[in-house]
Request: fold
Amino acid sequence: MRQLFTRLLAAGTEGEIQAILDAEGLAFDDSKWTAYGNNESYYGVVENQQAHPIPALVEKVTNGIDAILEKKVLQDLGDVRSPQAPQSVREALDRYFPQHRDWDVGDARRRQARELQIVASGPRRDTSLLVYDDGVGQAPGDFADTFLSLLRGNKNDVHFVQGKYNMGGAGAIAFCGDRRFQLVASKRYDGSSPLGFTLLRRHPPERAAAAGRKNTWYEYLVFDGQVASIDVDELDVGLDGRRFTTGSLLKLYSYRLPEGSRSIISRDLNVSLNEFLFEPALPFLTVDNNERYPDNKAPVQAVYGLKRRLEGDNQTVEAKFSVGSTTPEFGELGLTVYVFKARSRDQGVKETKQYIQREYFKNDMTVLFSLNGQVHGSFTSEFVTRALKMPLLKDYLLIHVDCSNLSLGVRNELFMASRDRLKAGDTADAIRKHLRDILLDSELKAIAKRRKASLNMDGSDAGQMLRDITRNLPMNEALTRILRQTFDLPDRQPGTAERKREEPERPRREQRDAPPFDPQRYPSSFRAKGGDGSEGGVRLYKLPAGGNRTIAFATDVENEYFDRTDDPGQLTLAVMRPAQAGGGGGSASLPSQEGDALSVTRASPTDGTIRVGVRATGGVSTGDVLEMRATLSSPQGDLVETVLVRITDPERSPPKPRPEPEPPLGIPELVLCSREGGEGRKSWEEIQEAGVDMGYDVVVQPFVDEDKLSRIYVNLDSSVLKNFNGGAKSAEAAELAERRYVSAVYFHTLFLFATTKSRKYDLRRGTEQAMEDVEVAEYISDVFSSSYAQFLLNFETSDLIDAMG
Reply:
């Protein structure tokens, strides 16, 4: 039996496993196989879990982390369900891994990560993965109720682990080659039992069909109806820095890693694992070997989550901030926003964008929803362009949403049990809208405004050029109808002059020199600012019913206090409900017990100010007074500030005066650009500051704002125009060619956009296995970067007719 186990463990591919089974006479001996979960119908449960091999592998890592935490609790308390057991993953880490905040230090991280490892073996293009954990382990007699069971919910009442349903770890089997082989071996942490092992597989479909079955099933290897066992003291299984003694070994043969993750796992697979494990409870190692990759100088790497990678990348990350939200509808949400630089590492926009995509968006996840650090679902960059309407940040924005403290009902409606995608439905739509509202009221709005400002023109001759081109443009009814489906074309009579609206002069405020902010690592002061008076020495703020109000608190702590990995702080907010009216006197209600009377958002500190947004819920009435107690944590003692919030009548907004109508041009602004810029032109560098690619290979960049084509940037230094003008015989001919180039590019862009939008085309590109959505502006720019612009310049319609005739 030991020899069989050794051969199975050493096998590098599913083909080698099949050869071992054939040689041992086990492949077709039905007495040696038992249905997985003791139920042949569980085939559908296994096959219909994670839709992608990376999140399926992440479940194995999560189970390993759970096993290590369970081992710690058993060693301490003897029972994982003890009333004294930790009630959360964070509490377990604080109790049993007090050094976990130091895991950004290489040596400490490496030592801890050796307790959980993923080891690669087999050929480069047919890799098998061994997942090892130094956790609680299982006795052979317990395999049927743990590794080989499904849907028993055996972790549902253990609060310090991630697992609940007793099914997530089974999802990886569906990606184990064609035959679905997986080796399971485990030994109890206290050495109280021998090492047990078995082999999982999919019952050969051809044999199931021959037996008249409509479907096949999963099964595992047994001997005399029992899981095999052997006595083992230690094993060399290729781990980094140790040998196997106790814990668990799971080997996934011929694992179907996606393209881009099949090479050196300590590099390419790590990137994807970090994405799906934003902040894992414990670090772990990925281990490759120099037999597979002789030139690999770093075959062993630690995985410690995307959060720590982002915080260590000062070259690429431009800004980071956090926002907390607490509402009766959802519970508590924590958002951390990362904005990447448009250009970094001494590279241009195109190269920077490629680097960011490769390092942080390999799996096309822009908004990450996580529970206890594991990503359970995501939104793509479509959220940035369509919900936030910030197209310039589409490739430069990553948002992490911590859902660990969402209310249970919301979590159940938001996440699939497979923990790899969101459920489509009302809850996901409501969360999407809530996130949009939070982010549009955050400092992200100012960041997007700065990016957009770098594209603005102070004044140029391009507008006059456009008017000259369009003045005598023959616009028949059909063309006008197409444009009016997308653009607001004026019905201007010939000869009518444009009226310029006079802008009223506004008084300018004098800028006051503020004293420089001296940030401290820990806060020593915390007090409310502003307000509408006070009651009993407590600041009072008026909140109109149905409206919002921002309450600012002054502090001296650094901006990263809530978000840093090393010893972060927190701001907690407790709101007291108003007491019931006393039945007379007409006096306002006074605060009483805590409740959900206010929806609250909390932003991270910004140069000495923490802003808290409040909105009254339906449970309060005009005249109610609520007490809000804000507590800012500090090692020297928490700082507490109390304020009062009085609900007042809804605000009545005065009617806005209608602006004098200005006849618009109705079509997008033309912006000319060139390498160096100059009078009436934007330079490439100015445009690149907004994250928009511009170079010799770019002809045009349409800019879409609020779903409307607002500007068309035409590059006068494109290779297309330079090559065309290379044969110009005079300056007049070159100028004529330039005007022809501008008009052709501008109006073809205009009509391509109008037609695509009015017909509601859905643009996508890629292979069937890896399709991605494409925005209209990106599609048009890409079309012109091919031979389309050259075609427009070199051929007249009459030439085409002659060529065809």
